[in-house]
Amino acid sequence: MLTLERGGGHWRNAYAERVLVRRLVMATQADLGWTGCPAVERDPQRVSGAWVFRGTRIPVAALFENLEDGVSLSEFVELFPGVTDQQARQVLEHVARSTAAVVA
What we know:
Arc Repressor Mutant, subunit A; 4 helices
């Protein structure tokens, strides 16, 4: 399981944290095969067709923008009612798998 919380020594330093988050932000703009991620959905008639967390109008990009601003995963879930911790983690895991496949 992918862990992106601060304070647990999972990110080595602030530079590595920034690089990872920027990579994830850029990745959300690419086609990462989001149809394979059960935590998200897209409807051309809602939120300008952006990928959103299933059952909400909250864009997936909001997660990465908040991470870039230093918001922890648990804080993000508190700030955006309707998004579950499980959904946020599924999105991060999906991006990690997708970007790993592109790099490999």
